[in-house]
Give the backbone structure.
Amino acid sequence: MTEETPQRLLPTGTCWCGCGNETGIGSFFTRGHDKTAEAALLAVRYDASVARLLDHHGFGPENSVLDAAVEEGGWEVCRICEYAGAPLSVRNHTRKYHEKK
C-alpha cells in the first residue's frame, strides 16, 4: 500500500472496471469484471505483460513475489510441498493433492 492509497477502499455501488454497471452491496465489481480491470491495467501500464508488472515492482527471478506474498501478504506455504497461495487456496490444494480419498 502506498501513501496515496487510502487505508480502506469503499465500494461505491458502481463497477470499478469503468463499465458503469451497478454492483451488489459491498462489491467493487460485477461478476468477472475484476479480471477485466486487471487485464486492462496490464495493457495500459505494463504493455500487457505480467513480467513488466513484476519488474516494475522489483520482483523477478532474483526477488520472489511468492516469498513476499508469504512474508507480507498473508499467503501460506503447503506443509507438505512447496505450493504457496492464499489460505483457502492452500487448504483446497492440500485436500485435492495430499489427503487420502
Notes: The beta strands are 76-77, 84-85. Residues 1 and 7 are 8 Å apart (CA to CA). The chain has four helices and two strands.
